[in-house]
Amino acid sequence: LGLDPAAEKQESRKAETFEQVAREYLERHAKIKKKSWKHDERVIKKDLVPEFGIQKAKDVTRRDVRSFLERKAQTAPIMANRTRALLKKIYNWAIMSEIVETNPVYLLPAPAKEHRRERVLTKDELKSIWNAINADVRDSDDSHRKMKTLSAGIMKLRLLTAQRGAEVMSMEWSELELDTGWWTIPGEKTKNGLSHRVYLTAPAVAIIREMKSVVDGAGSRYAFPSPIGDTHINNP
């Protein structure tokens, strides 16, 4: 009939809302290529969809984005920077996928200045935190004691090993050699994609053994199993 089906399809794609494009980005890119895709999903649901969701993705302007980021930076400056980076990534992916033609984040500076963190906790602060964690478990009622104990174990191991929260929370029994005091974090869990060996001090081993007694009989492969489903705790 002299029509161009490909052109019609492309024109239809250009009419997609931002929410539709963001969901495609999650399913076709982030979930496949990013370990941190759940963070992207949270930011999209909490911040980006409420702001731009019903707009056509191609109609979101640089002025719209600047206004949104400036408002975000007033209460959460560092998060505003992270949100800007994600929005830019979504549009870059959409351009490569021939969904949109331009990126409204292009040339927009980060809304907040960031400084390298040099603050560390003092011995007295560490002691205060440790005692507060113990008190929280001690004062909990029976219905919450198991979850509080697991959460306390996560926090203490983060202090003792200096490992990332996500790596501690997803610790599996198969990664541990408690008799020799080693924890091997596989590459698929680390930020740089390389396996990482962590030495466990006697207090760290004692905490992990305590977790084993707390979850005894749960049958989970995780040291800190979630009470819901076959996964680990994500929010202590």
Q: Which helices and strands occur, and which strands form pairs?
A:
Blueprint: H1 5-14, H2 18-33, H3 37-52, H4 62-75, H5 77-96, H6 123-138, H7 142-161, H8 165-169, E1 176-177, E2 182-185, E3 196-199, H9 202-214
Antiparallel strand pairs: 1-2, 2-3
Helix pairs in contact: 2-3, 4-5, 6-7, 7-9
Structural features, described:
By secondary structure, the chain is mainly alpha-helical. It has nine helices and three strands, in the order H-H-H-H-H-H-H-H-E-E-E-H. The protein has helices at 5-14, 18-33, 37-52, 62-75, 77-96, 123-138, 142-161, 165-169, 202-214; strands spanning 176-177, 182-185, 196-199. Strands 1-2-3 form a three-stranded antiparallel sheet, with no helix packed on it. The radius of gyration is 23 Å and the shape is elongated.
| Oligomeric form | single chain
Q: Identify the overall geometry.
A: elongated
The assigned structural class equals mainly alpha
Radius of gyration: 23 Å
- Which parts are unreliable, with pLDDT below 50 for 5 consecutive residues or more? none
Tally of helical runs: 9
Q: Specify the biggest β-sheet.
A: 3 strands, antiparallel
Number of strands: 3
Q: Which percent bin holds the helix content? A: 55-70%
Order of helices and strands: HHHHHHHHEEEH
Estimate the strand proportion. under 5%
Instruction: Provide the residue-averaged pLDDT.
Output: 88
Strand arrangement, largest sheet?
1-2-3
* Termini Cα gap: 61 Å
